[in-house]
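FORM 12-B: Structure-to-Sequence Request
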Protein backbone atom coordinates (compact mmCIF):
# COMPACT_ATOMS: atom_id res chain seq x y z
CA UNK A 1 0.00 0.00 0.00
CA UNK A 2 1.36 3.41 -0.92
CA UNK A 3 2.06 5.88 1.85
CA UNK A 4 -0.40 8.80 2.03
CA UNK A 5 0.68 12.00 0.25
CA UNK A 6 1.99 14.61 2.68
CA UNK A 7 2.10 18.10 1.10
CA UNK A 8 5.25 20.13 1.55
CA UNK A 9 5.14 22.83 4.22
CA UNK A 10 3.95 26.24 3.03
CA UNK A 11 6.53 29.01 2.86
CA UNK A 12 5.73 32.73 2.59
CA UNK A 13 8.14 35.14 0.94
CA UNK A 14 8.24 38.52 -0.80
CA UNK A 15 7.97 38.21 -4.57
CA UNK A 16 10.81 39.58 -6.69
CA UNK A 17 8.89 42.06 -8.81
CA UNK A 18 12.05 43.00 -10.72
CA UNK A 19 12.24 39.47 -12.16
CA UNK A 20 10.24 39.05 -15.41
CA UNK A 21 9.90 35.33 -14.72
CA UNK A 22 8.34 36.06 -11.32
CA UNK A 23 5.93 38.53 -12.92
CA UNK A 24 4.95 35.89 -15.50
CA UNK A 25 4.30 33.33 -12.72
CA UNK A 26 2.07 35.80 -10.87
CA UNK A 27 0.14 36.72 -14.02
CA UNK A 28 -0.42 33.02 -14.72
CA UNK A 29 -1.61 32.35 -11.15
CA UNK A 30 -4.10 35.25 -11.31
CA UNK A 31 -5.34 34.09 -14.72
CA UNK A 32 -5.97 30.56 -13.39
CA UNK A 33 -7.58 31.55 -10.12
CA UNK A 34 -11.41 31.76 -10.24
CA UNK A 35 -11.38 34.95 -8.14
CA UNK A 36 -8.55 36.70 -9.94
CA UNK A 37 -9.32 40.29 -10.94
CA UNK A 38 -7.68 43.11 -12.91
CA UNK A 39 -6.48 44.51 -9.57
CA UNK A 40 -4.47 41.38 -8.79
CA UNK A 41 -2.51 41.64 -12.01
CA UNK A 42 1.06 42.96 -11.74
CA UNK A 43 0.02 45.16 -14.65
CA UNK A 44 -2.16 46.99 -12.12
CA UNK A 45 -0.36 47.19 -8.79
CA UNK A 46 3.17 47.55 -10.19
CA UNK A 47 2.12 50.20 -12.72
CA UNK A 48 0.09 52.07 -10.09
CA UNK A 49 3.00 52.19 -7.65
CA UNK A 50 5.47 53.38 -10.27
CA UNK A 51 3.15 56.13 -11.52
CA UNK A 52 2.36 57.48 -8.04
CA UNK A 53 5.84 57.26 -6.54
CA UNK A 54 4.75 54.51 -4.14
CA UNK A 55 6.08 50.95 -3.80
CA UNK A 56 4.68 47.68 -5.12
CA UNK A 57 5.04 44.53 -3.00
CA UNK A 58 3.60 41.03 -3.06
CA UNK A 59 3.55 38.11 -0.67
CA UNK A 60 3.68 34.66 -2.22
CA UNK A 61 3.02 31.40 -0.42
CA UNK A 62 4.45 28.28 -2.03
CA UNK A 63 4.45 24.55 -1.43
CA UNK A 64 7.50 23.29 -3.25
CA UNK A 65 7.56 25.10 -6.60
CA UNK A 66 3.80 25.78 -6.68
CA UNK A 67 2.20 29.09 -5.74
CA UNK A 68 -0.73 28.40 -3.41
CA UNK A 69 -1.50 31.97 -2.26
CA UNK A 70 -0.78 35.48 -3.49
CA UNK A 71 -1.35 38.84 -1.79
CA UNK A 72 -0.36 41.99 -3.76
CA UNK A 73 0.15 45.37 -2.10
CA UNK A 74 0.84 48.98 -2.83
CA UNK A 75 2.71 50.63 0.03
CA UNK A 76 1.30 54.16 0.04
CA UNK A 77 2.62 57.18 1.90
CA UNK A 78 0.55 60.32 2.40
CA UNK A 79 1.41 63.35 4.55
CA UNK A 80 -2.37 63.80 4.94
CA UNK A 81 -3.62 60.23 5.53
CA UNK A 82 -0.46 58.47 6.74
CA UNK A 83 1.11 55.21 5.59
CA UNK A 84 -0.92 52.29 4.24
CA UNK A 85 -0.51 48.82 2.77
CA UNK A 86 -3.43 48.50 0.33
CA UNK A 87 -4.44 45.36 -1.53
CA UNK A 88 -4.56 46.86 -3.92
CA UNK A 89 -3.84 50.55 -4.28
CA UNK A 90 -6.28 52.82 -6.13
CA UNK A 91 -8.51 49.78 -6.68
CA UNK A 92 -11.95 48.59 -5.61
CA UNK A 93 -10.76 44.99 -5.39
CA UNK A 94 -7.77 42.87 -4.55
CA UNK A 95 -6.99 40.92 -1.42
CA UNK A 96 -5.67 37.41 -0.87
CA UNK A 97 -5.99 34.80 -3.61
CA UNK A 98 -5.62 31.32 -2.09
CA UNK A 99 -5.97 27.72 -3.21
CA UNK A 100 -7.11 24.78 -1.08
CA UNK A 101 -3.47 24.10 -0.18
CA UNK A 102 -2.85 27.58 1.23
CA UNK A 103 -2.47 28.58 4.87
CA UNK A 104 -4.12 32.03 4.92
CA UNK A 105 -3.33 32.67 8.59
CA UNK A 106 0.40 32.60 7.94
CA UNK A 107 -0.01 34.99 4.99
CA UNK A 108 -1.91 37.47 7.15
CA UNK A 109 0.76 37.17 9.84
CA UNK A 110 3.43 37.88 7.22
CA UNK A 111 1.43 40.91 6.04
CA UNK A 112 1.28 42.29 9.59
CA UNK A 113 5.02 41.78 9.99
CA UNK A 114 5.65 43.49 6.65
CA UNK A 115 3.48 46.46 7.62
CA UNK A 116 5.35 46.93 10.89
CA UNK A 117 8.70 46.65 9.12
CA UNK A 118 7.63 49.38 6.67
CA UNK A 119 6.16 51.59 9.42
CA UNK A 120 2.66 51.22 7.91
CA UNK A 121 0.11 51.29 10.75
CA UNK A 122 -2.75 50.23 8.46
CA UNK A 123 -3.51 47.36 6.07
CA UNK A 124 -6.58 47.37 3.84
CA UNK A 125 -7.76 44.19 2.08
CA UNK A 126 -10.36 45.04 -0.56
CA UNK A 127 -11.82 41.59 -1.10
CA UNK A 128 -10.37 38.11 -1.45
CA UNK A 129 -9.97 35.70 1.47
CA UNK A 130 -10.33 37.72 4.66
CA UNK A 131 -9.04 37.15 8.20
CA UNK A 132 -11.48 36.61 11.05
CA UNK A 133 -12.51 39.70 12.97
CA UNK A 134 -10.22 40.29 15.94
CA UNK A 135 -8.79 43.00 18.16
CA UNK A 136 -6.50 44.12 15.32
CA UNK A 137 -8.60 43.20 12.24
CA UNK A 138 -11.94 44.93 11.56
CA UNK A 139 -14.38 43.64 8.94
CA UNK A 140 -16.68 46.12 7.15
CA UNK A 141 -19.58 44.28 5.56
CA UNK A 142 -22.01 46.86 4.20
CA UNK A 143 -20.08 50.08 3.65
CA UNK A 144 -19.78 49.40 -0.11
CA UNK A 145 -21.60 47.40 -2.77
CA UNK A 146 -20.74 46.22 -6.24
CA UNK A 147 -23.04 46.32 -9.27
CA UNK A 148 -22.86 43.92 -12.22
CA UNK A 149 -25.29 42.32 -14.65
CA UNK A 150 -25.21 40.54 -18.03
CA UNK A 151 -25.27 42.50 -21.27
CA UNK A 152 -28.25 42.05 -23.58
CA UNK A 153 -28.18 40.26 -26.94
CA UNK A 154 -28.43 43.32 -29.21
CA UNK A 155 -28.68 47.13 -29.21
CA UNK A 156 -32.46 47.37 -28.95
CA UNK A 157 -32.61 44.69 -26.26
CA UNK A 158 -29.95 46.58 -24.32
CA UNK A 159 -32.07 49.72 -24.38
CA UNK A 160 -35.20 47.84 -23.33
CA UNK A 161 -33.24 46.17 -20.53
CA UNK A 162 -32.88 49.56 -18.81
CA UNK A 163 -35.73 50.45 -16.39
CA UNK A 164 -38.33 52.80 -17.84
CA UNK A 165 -37.34 56.09 -16.18
CA UNK A 166 -33.65 55.66 -16.86
CA UNK A 167 -34.43 54.44 -20.40
CA UNK A 168 -36.24 57.72 -21.04
CA UNK A 169 -33.05 59.58 -20.08
CA UNK A 170 -31.03 57.43 -22.46
CA UNK A 171 -33.51 58.11 -25.26
CA UNK A 172 -33.14 61.84 -24.63
CA UNK A 173 -29.38 61.48 -24.89
CA UNK A 174 -29.75 59.69 -28.22
CA UNK A 175 -31.66 62.72 -29.53
CA UNK A 176 -28.80 65.08 -28.59
CA UNK A 177 -26.14 66.10 -31.11
CA UNK A 178 -23.44 64.01 -29.43
CA UNK A 179 -20.57 62.08 -31.01
CA UNK A 180 -18.58 59.15 -29.65
CA UNK A 181 -14.83 58.54 -29.85
CA UNK A 182 -13.10 55.37 -28.65
CA UNK A 183 -9.34 54.85 -28.47
CA UNK A 184 -6.19 55.25 -26.41
CA UNK A 185 -4.30 57.87 -28.44
CA UNK A 186 -2.81 61.00 -26.91
CA UNK A 187 -5.89 62.94 -28.05
CA UNK A 188 -8.17 60.42 -26.31
CA UNK A 189 -6.11 60.59 -23.11
CA UNK A 190 -5.96 64.39 -23.07
CA UNK A 191 -9.70 64.72 -23.63
CA UNK A 192 -10.44 62.22 -20.87
CA UNK A 193 -8.14 63.87 -18.36
CA UNK A 194 -9.63 67.31 -19.01
CA UNK A 195 -13.11 65.99 -18.23
CA UNK A 196 -11.84 63.87 -15.35
CA UNK A 197 -10.17 66.85 -13.67
CA UNK A 198 -13.30 68.99 -13.81
CA UNK A 199 -15.48 66.14 -12.59
CA UNK A 200 -13.28 65.40 -9.59
CA UNK A 201 -13.02 69.08 -8.59
CA UNK A 202 -16.82 69.32 -8.73
CA UNK A 203 -17.06 66.27 -6.45
CA UNK A 204 -14.61 67.83 -4.00
CA UNK A 205 -11.96 65.15 -4.61
CA UNK A 206 -8.27 65.73 -5.46
CA UNK A 207 -7.71 64.40 -8.97
CA UNK A 208 -5.30 61.53 -9.62
CA UNK A 209 -2.11 62.31 -11.54
CA UNK A 210 -2.46 61.68 -15.25
CA UNK A 211 0.62 59.46 -15.06
CA UNK A 212 -1.47 56.97 -13.04
CA UNK A 213 -4.16 56.72 -15.70
CA UNK A 214 -1.60 56.49 -18.51
CA UNK A 215 0.34 53.77 -16.69
CA UNK A 216 -2.74 51.56 -16.35
CA UNK A 217 -3.77 52.05 -19.98
CA UNK A 218 -0.23 51.20 -21.12
CA UNK A 219 0.00 48.16 -18.84
CA UNK A 220 -3.36 46.72 -19.93
CA UNK A 221 -2.87 47.34 -23.65
CA UNK A 222 -5.86 46.01 -25.60
CA UNK A 223 -7.62 45.28 -22.31
CA UNK A 224 -8.28 48.99 -21.71
CA UNK A 225 -9.73 51.87 -23.73
CA UNK A 226 -11.28 55.33 -23.45
CA UNK A 227 -14.79 56.24 -24.58
CA UNK A 228 -15.44 59.97 -24.91
CA UNK A 229 -18.71 61.78 -25.59
CA UNK A 230 -18.38 65.11 -27.41
CA UNK A 231 -20.77 67.99 -28.00
CA UNK A 232 -19.86 70.39 -30.82
CA UNK A 233 -16.36 68.93 -30.74
CA UNK A 234 -15.78 69.45 -27.00
CA UNK A 235 -15.43 66.48 -24.64
CA UNK A 236 -18.25 66.50 -22.07
CA UNK A 237 -18.05 62.95 -20.65
CA UNK A 238 -15.35 60.31 -20.78
CA UNK A 239 -14.47 56.98 -19.15
CA UNK A 240 -11.50 54.62 -19.01
CA UNK A 241 -12.69 51.01 -19.02
CA UNK A 242 -10.93 47.74 -18.25
CA UNK A 243 -11.78 44.41 -19.90
CA UNK A 244 -11.30 41.14 -18.05
CA UNK A 245 -12.78 37.64 -18.49
CA UNK A 246 -15.65 38.78 -20.66
CA UNK A 247 -16.60 41.75 -18.47
CA UNK A 248 -16.24 45.46 -19.08
CA UNK A 249 -15.53 47.66 -16.07
CA UNK A 250 -15.98 51.43 -16.50
CA UNK A 251 -13.46 52.60 -13.95
CA UNK A 252 -12.26 56.21 -14.17
CA UNK A 253 -14.96 58.39 -15.63
CA UNK A 254 -16.71 61.69 -15.25
CA UNK A 255 -18.52 64.56 -16.91
CA UNK A 256 -18.43 68.35 -17.11
CA UNK A 257 -21.18 70.65 -15.87
CA UNK A 258 -22.70 70.49 -19.37
CA UNK A 259 -22.89 66.69 -19.20
CA UNK A 260 -26.01 66.76 -17.05
CA UNK A 261 -28.17 68.88 -19.35
CA UNK A 262 -26.89 66.96 -22.38
CA UNK A 263 -27.46 63.54 -20.70
CA UNK A 264 -23.88 62.81 -21.75
CA UNK A 265 -23.24 60.35 -18.92
CA UNK A 266 -26.33 58.36 -19.92
CA UNK A 267 -25.10 58.27 -23.50
CA UNK A 268 -21.62 57.29 -22.35
CA UNK A 269 -22.68 54.23 -20.38
CA UNK A 270 -25.21 53.07 -22.97
CA UNK A 271 -22.62 53.37 -25.77
CA UNK A 272 -20.11 51.52 -23.60
CA UNK A 273 -22.58 48.65 -23.17
CA UNK A 274 -22.95 48.41 -26.95
CA UNK A 275 -19.22 48.72 -27.56
CA UNK A 276 -18.37 46.08 -24.96
CA UNK A 277 -20.79 43.56 -26.46
CA UNK A 278 -19.25 44.12 -29.90
CA UNK A 279 -15.87 43.37 -28.30
CA UNK A 280 -17.25 40.04 -27.14
CA UNK A 281 -18.12 40.96 -23.54
CA UNK A 282 -21.09 39.36 -21.82
CA UNK A 283 -21.05 41.24 -18.49
CA UNK A 284 -21.18 44.92 -17.48
CA UNK A 285 -19.44 45.49 -14.15
CA UNK A 286 -20.52 48.93 -12.96
CA UNK A 287 -18.06 48.73 -10.06
CA UNK A 288 -18.17 49.70 -6.42
CA UNK A 289 -20.09 52.52 -4.74
CA UNK A 290 -20.51 53.58 -1.14
CA UNK A 291 -23.85 52.35 0.22
CA UNK A 292 -26.67 54.90 -0.14
CA UNK A 293 -24.42 57.37 -2.00
CA UNK A 294 -25.54 59.18 -5.14
CA UNK A 295 -23.55 56.78 -7.32
CA UNK A 296 -25.12 53.81 -5.50
CA UNK A 297 -28.65 54.97 -6.36
CA UNK A 298 -27.65 56.01 -9.89
CA UNK A 299 -26.52 52.46 -10.65
CA UNK A 300 -29.72 51.02 -9.20
CA UNK A 301 -31.66 53.33 -11.53
CA UNK A 302 -29.98 51.46 -14.41
CA UNK A 303 -31.41 48.19 -13.12
CA UNK A 304 -28.32 46.90 -11.31
CA UNK A 305 -28.70 45.06 -8.01
CA UNK A 306 -26.40 45.95 -5.12
CA UNK A 307 -24.06 43.17 -3.98
CA UNK A 308 -22.63 44.05 -0.53
CA UNK A 309 -18.85 43.85 -0.26
CA UNK A 310 -16.74 42.90 2.74
CA UNK A 311 -13.38 44.57 3.37
CA UNK A 312 -10.87 44.05 6.16
CA UNK A 313 -8.69 46.63 7.90
CA UNK A 314 -5.77 45.96 10.23
CA UNK A 315 -4.52 48.61 12.60
CA UNK A 316 -1.19 48.22 14.34
CA UNK A 317 -1.45 47.96 18.14
CA UNK A 318 -1.42 51.42 19.69
CA UNK A 319 -2.11 53.21 16.38
CA UNK A 320 -5.14 55.33 15.49
CA UNK A 321 -7.49 54.06 12.79
CA UNK A 322 -6.94 55.64 9.37
CA UNK A 323 -9.64 58.13 8.36
CA UNK A 324 -10.00 58.54 4.58
CA UNK A 325 -13.79 58.23 4.51
CA UNK A 326 -15.30 61.13 2.49
CA UNK A 327 -18.49 61.10 4.60
CA UNK A 328 -16.64 61.59 7.89
CA UNK A 329 -17.20 64.93 9.57
CA UNK A 330 -13.49 65.72 9.34
CA UNK A 331 -13.28 65.21 5.57
CA UNK A 332 -16.71 66.52 4.57
CA UNK A 333 -15.59 70.10 5.35
CA UNK A 334 -12.42 69.61 3.29
CA UNK A 335 -14.54 68.35 0.37
CA UNK A 336 -16.77 71.43 0.46
CA UNK A 337 -13.71 73.68 0.46
CA UNK A 338 -12.12 71.77 -2.42
CA UNK A 339 -15.28 72.18 -4.52
CA UNK A 340 -14.79 75.96 -4.33
CA UNK A 341 -11.21 75.92 -5.64
CA UNK A 342 -10.53 77.37 -9.10
CA UNK A 343 -10.11 74.46 -11.51
CA UNK A 344 -6.54 75.41 -12.45
CA UNK A 345 -5.43 75.44 -8.82
CA UNK A 346 -7.21 72.16 -8.04
CA UNK A 347 -5.51 70.54 -11.04
CA UNK A 348 -2.05 71.68 -9.89
CA UNK A 349 -2.19 70.55 -6.28
CA UNK A 350 -4.72 67.70 -6.54
CA UNK A 351 -2.35 65.06 -7.96
CA UNK A 352 0.18 65.69 -5.18
CA UNK A 353 -2.49 64.86 -2.59
CA UNK A 354 -4.30 62.11 -4.54
CA UNK A 355 -1.20 59.94 -5.05
CA UNK A 356 -1.30 59.30 -1.31
CA UNK A 357 -5.00 58.46 -0.95
CA UNK A 358 -4.65 54.90 -2.22
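FORM 12-B RESPONSE
SEQUENCE OUT:
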Amino acid sequence: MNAPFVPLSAQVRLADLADPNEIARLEAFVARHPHGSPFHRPGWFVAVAKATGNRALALVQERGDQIVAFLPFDAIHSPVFGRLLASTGFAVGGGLLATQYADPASVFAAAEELALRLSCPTIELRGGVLPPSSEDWTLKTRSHANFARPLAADDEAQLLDIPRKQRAEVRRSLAMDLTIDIGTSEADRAAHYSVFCESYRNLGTPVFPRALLDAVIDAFGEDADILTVRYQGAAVASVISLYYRGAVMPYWGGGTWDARRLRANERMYYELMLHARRRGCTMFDFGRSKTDSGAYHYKRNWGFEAEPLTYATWTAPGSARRDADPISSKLSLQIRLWQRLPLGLANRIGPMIARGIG
